[in-house]
Each structure stands twice: as C-alpha cells, then as structure tokens.
Known about the structure:
single chain, Four Helix Bundle (Hemerythrin (Met), subunit A), 62% helix
Amino acid sequence: MGSFDVPLADERTQLEAFIEDYRGAMESTLDGLTEEQARRRLVPSATTLLGLLKHVTWMQRVWFEECVGGTSRRELGLVRSPEESFRLNEDDTIASVTAAHRAACATARTVIADRSLDVVVTGHRSGPRTLRWVCLQVLRELAHHHGHADILREQLLAD
C-alpha cells in the first residue's frame, strides 16, 4: 500500500508516507544498473544517479541530524556544501551508497519519532524552523531529485 492509498491518514502519517515513497523511489533508480552506469555522467554537471543518491543522503542528514538533532556537519563528518555532496569517491558503490542512505533514513526516523511537527528546531545555520517545515523541505528535495534521477535512468536505458 503506497502513500496515495491512505486517503484519511492524519497529516504526520501522510507526510512520512510521502517521504518514504520518495526514499524508495530514489533507491529504485539504481535497480539493475551496473556500477559504470550508476556513475555515468549524461549532463554537463557532475550529476549522476549514484551521486544523486549520495546527495539526498547528505541532504537528509543535514536536515534531520544537523537541523533537528543539533549535531554540526563537522561533528557528523559531512561535507560542507550541496555541490560537494554529489561527488563520488573511488570506493563509492551502489551497495555502499544505498547502505549509507538507508542508515541516514533510519537515523532520521529515530530523530523525529517523538517530536511534534510543531516543535521549533534550531540546528540549521539558516535559522529556526518547525519540524513540519523540515519534513516538507526534505519531501520537496526528494521529489525534485527523483525527477532528475528518473530522467537520467531513462537516458541510460535508452542507450
């Protein structure tokens, strides 16, 4: 049952379901691809399918672990900028990036589990936000990047 099949769900349940849908959708863009395909650059920027999953992992850690959890990027061992988060290391593989994504998602679930959507969080450098705002921002970014990933996958499979 996907998030669209829960018509009377409360706001939090629905919001979390949408986020989960896009988390899974991002991972599924790598299904059946070779390591080379996942790393292939099809656009002038450094954007690749594997890089997109690495970026959304970083993005969720920033919003949930830094902003909500209050741990700095430096303490988390995260790169400083979104641009850096797309960069692949030699040892990045589909399996390792997917595992990191799943771990970040599990941590995110734990970080927000006992917090109200109305709680104000202050860990992000741009200032205070409600947890609702953070969740909506993460959903927006996941949807945005899934659109990119979907097009890149289509291009890869057309070759």
